[in-house]
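Encode chain A's predicted structure.
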Amino acid sequence: MHGFTIVDAPRDGTLLSANEIRAIFQAFLMDIAE
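Encoded structure for chain A:
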């Protein structure tokens, strides 16, 4: 799934936590599943 980018990533380069990534990814999957 190339085209999916977390646009609002922190500017200082800090990685999102696993829970945040999972929540964003699940929301993205539910969005395209509709």
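The chain has a mean pLDDT of 73.
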